[in-house]
Amino acid sequence: DQQVKQNSPSLSVQEGRISILNCDYTNSMFDYFLWYKKYPAEGPTFLISISSIKDKNEDGRFTVFLNKSAKHLSLHIVPSQPGDSAVYFCAASAGTSGTYKYIFGTGTRLKVLA
Amino acid sequence: SQTIHQWPATLVQPVGSPLSLECTVEGTSNPNLYWYRQAAGRGLQLLFYSVGIGQISSEVPQNLSASRPQDRQFILSSKKLLLSDSGFYLCAWSRGRYEQYFGPGTRLTVT
To answer: At the N or C end, where does chain A have fewer CB atoms within 10 A?
Structure first.
């Protein structure tokens, strides 16, 4: 049972435009969410987080939106740059579990075209 | 600042041989530690996590084991590797339940 889903395996965007990466989850107990960027043969790099008490969090070019009723979150990158080309993972955890475990999605490969 | 080290970076091992991957964290104390595996074209699968010395929780029953002999050291082991153990192994640490920070990873190829 895939509790965290990234249904788009890949996405291509023109440089300077907005990239929107989507993530859906099924467990209503998830209350903290993370986004990571990963280059090949490297460890993931933390980008941005959001708690379920918020519906939006911004950090520079990155904004994460959370729609709890739809169990959906999205990462917006504006403007997109060629260096943003990477695989992006979302992850979710349930605070009530007490175990600090995150469930990761399968990733979306973003390609930003110059 | 905190840093996380993993070694080796790459490893090629024959089927049936043992495995030991090491992860150490600097600049923090009593971190939560995690081992993940990323198989080719797949997401990140949590294998083990630890909230303290000697405390190991296993997420996926398999051919691997983990140990935490010291506060900032996490070791992934196997007595006999299988072909299916090939993948990219990642160690991570966190403070409580918040962001996890990953090491550079180890590429394991079992032949």
So the answer is: N
Those residues whose C-beta lies under 8 Å from the C-beta of residue B41, and which sit 6 or more positions away, are: none
Whether the CB of A41 is below 8 Å from some CB of chain B: the reply is yes
Q: Strand, coil or helix: what is A3?
A: coil
CA distance A52 to B63: 36
Whole-angstrom distance, CA of residue A46 vs CA of residue A26: 23
- Count the alpha carbons within 13 Å of A48 in the hemisphere toward its beta carbon: 18
- d(C-alpha A4, C-alpha A72), whole Å: 10
Who's near B107: CB < 8 A, 6+ residues apart? A41, B9, B10, B11, B88, B89
The DSSP element (H or E) to which B9 belongs, if any, is none
- Out of A41, A101, A106, whose CB is closest to B105? A41
Contact A58, A44 (CB under 8 A): no
Mind telling me how many Å the CA of B13 is from chain A's nearest CA?
18
B50 contacts B32 by C-beta, under 8 angstroms: yes
C-alpha atoms less than 13 angstroms from C-alpha of A94 in its C-beta half-sphere: 11
Instruction: Tell whether the model's pLDDT for residue A67 goes beyond 90.
Output: yes
The mean-pLDDT minimum among A11-15, A53-57, B27-31 falls in: B27-31
Q: Highest mean pLDDT range out of A27-31, B11-15, B51-55?
A: B11-15
Using a 10 angstrom Cβ sphere, with 0-12 exposed, 13-18 middle and 19 or more buried, the burial of residue B38 is buried
Candidates B34, B97, B108: best to mutate against A (most CBs of A within 10 A) is: B97
Q: Indicate the pLDDT class of residue A50, thresholds 50, 70 and 90.
A: very high
